[in-house]
Amino acid sequence: MGVNSMEKDNEKKLSFLGCIFNGIVTENPILILMIGMCPTLAVTTSVSNAIGMGLSTTAVLVASNALISLVRNIIPDRVRIPIYIVIVASFVTLIEFTIKAYFPALYESLGIYIPLIVVNCIIFGRAEAFAGKNKVIHSIGDGIGMGLGFTLGIILISAIRELIGSGSIYGFTFVPENYRAALFVLPPGAFLVLAFLTAIQNRLNLPSATNKKDGCNNDCLHCTLHKQPVTAEEEK
């Protein structure tokens, strides 16, 4: 009884726009949660690649979140993960075929990272933590928010890398050749940019994966900051 009422209260606090805002700002998967790092570090050599990967991931997030939320009450708990994989893989296959048919240059550029969307931890994280427990409308909002947050995050990283490493963005040259640092379009450049962005967030006391919450003592096992009150039913 207590657990059910708690879930209903949580649903009342959710809103479609609130879920979108949460994904873009409060829990941005790249700049705050730091998840989905594989495509983030691999495809951010250019803004065009980042936009393609970001929008593809957003489409899969929205579609998979919606379907998983729609059928969550009829999925046996024991097989929910395999079913999530089938749902996500189906949508990724549709996206992959669409990109291959209509955007062959982007398909060649992104390569293996399009099918690897299937195992992106952002997709499964939201399916398990949100879509499998909330209504369809909220799950769609969560997919849009997380997808756009991911897209904006990798666009920011790719813009910095492309500008410093190649001196241009979308064919427009901004930095003379003698002042370019080719390191930034190589794999180490992705780590450097991400580290610099995190350092700036910490310096400005902005939320980030490495910023401690007020009162945090790094003892997660005994953390009481976000612990829900124990109900009488749970105590039994």
- H/E order of the elements? HHHHHHHHEEHH
User: Shape, please?
Assistant: globular
Classify the secondary structure makeup into a structural class: mainly alpha
Strand order of the largest sheet: 1-2
Distance between the termini: 13 Å
Question: How many strand segments?
Answer: 2
Give the number of helices: 10
Q: Provide the residue-averaged pLDDT.
A: 84
Largest sheet: 2 strands, antiparallel
Short description:
The chain is mainly alpha-helical. The protein has helices spanning 2-13, 16-26, 37-42, 47-71, 80-102, 104-110, 121-131, 136-166, 187-203, 232-235; strands spanning 168-169, 172-173.
Summarize the structure in words.
- The chain is mainly alpha-helical.
- The protein has one domain (2-235).
- Helix content is 62%, strand content 2%.
- Strands 1-2 form a two-stranded antiparallel sheet.
- Strand 1 (168-169) and strand 2 (172-173) form a beta hairpin.
- Helix 5 crosses helix 6 (104-110), helix 5 (80-102) crosses helix 7 and helix 8 packs across helix 9 (187-203).
- It is globular and about 60 Å long.
- The model is unreliable at 1-7, 217-222 and 225-236 (pLDDT under 50).
Features:
236 residues, mainly alpha, two-stranded antiparallel sheet, 10 helices, 62% helix, globular
